[in-house]
Amino acid sequence: MNVGLLVEGHGEFYAAPILVRRIAGSLGAHCVVRTVLRQPRSTIIKPGELERAVTLLGNKVGDGGAVLVLIDADDDPACTLGPELLSRATTARPDRRIGVVLAVREYEAWFLVAADSLRGRRGLPADLATPSTPEVLRDAKGWLGDRMPRGYSPTADQPALTDLFDLELARRSPSFDKLVRELTRLLLTTEK
After folding, report:
1. Strands 2-7 and 97-103, how do they pair?
2. CA distance 144 to 147
3. What is the rounded distance in angstroms from the CA atom of residue 140 to the CA atom of residue 8?
4. What is the enclosing helix (H) or strand (E) of 16?
5. What is the model's pLDDT at position 192?
6. From the CB of residue 62, how many other CB atoms can be counted at a distance below 10 Å?
7. Neighbouring residues of 104: CB distance < 8 A, sequence distance ≥ 6
8. pLDDT score, position 191
9. What residue ranges define each of the domains in the chain, with the CATH number in brackets?
10. What phi, psi does 68 have (nearest 5°)?
11. Which residues have C-beta within 8 Å of that of residue 111, sequence separation ≥ 6?
12. Which residues on adjacent β-strands are paired with residue 2?
């Protein structure tokens, strides 16, 4: 299945396709990330802009394809903003499978949830421990950067850590579990 991704950050532009392919592989599904579109979060949530992006991605993935919107929740409640964005996106492209997932606070919080699997990798300490409330913590990028000798670079480290972190450990995060469930629905069911 062809998948189009709408993301907000420079790091996600490179990391999200890796993550989608890893999750698809863990589900026994095959997908081709046909295109990735990056727009600032402020643009994505603006009325008309999400719809424009989803329409474009829907054209690129073709019949039977899927579009996944993957952005950070930041300070917004994912349980409110996510369904609102999904409604707008499916109204714009009712003929495509559409999923919307908001990483609670930020994408990097998923690395924190699975920090045990990243010990000793990419310069992280061998005794790295998961913080007690990884999805409540503000600035997961900063938390990672404080533990990496050269700091954290979203464009270099986010794709690399995405390729390394344990997907099952990350499912302790409700928002990451939502991503797995959404990809399961998009890739393995006939439901739109």
Report:
1. unpaired
2. 5
3. 16
4. helix 10-27
5. 64
6. 12
7. 73, 78, 135, 173, 174, 175
8. 67
9. 2-106+170-188 (3.40.50.2300), 109-167 (no CATH)
10. -120, 125
11. 118, 140, 144, 161, 165
12. 32
Burial category of 133 from C-beta neighbours within 10 Å (exposed 0-12, middle 13-18, buried 19 and up): exposed
Distance CA 54, CA 98 (A): 9
Tokens in use for 56?
């474009």
Residue type, 40: P
Residue tagged 């699997």 (tokens) = 117
- Collect all residues with Cβ–Cβ distance below 8 Å to 189 and sequence separation of at least 6: none
Strand stretches in 41-134, DSSP E: 66-72, 97-103
Nearest to 157 by CA among 177, 170, 172, 142: 142
**CA dihedral of residues 50, 53, 54, 56 (deg, nearest 10):** 160
- For the stretch 149-163, pLDDT in tens is 999 999 999 999 999
pTM higher than the cut 0.90:
yes
Closest by CA to 100, choosing from 49, 52, 54, is 54
Q: Which residues pair with 68 in a beta bridge?
A: 5, 99
% pLDDT > 70, the chain: 99
Beta strands in 73-122 (DSSP E): 97-103
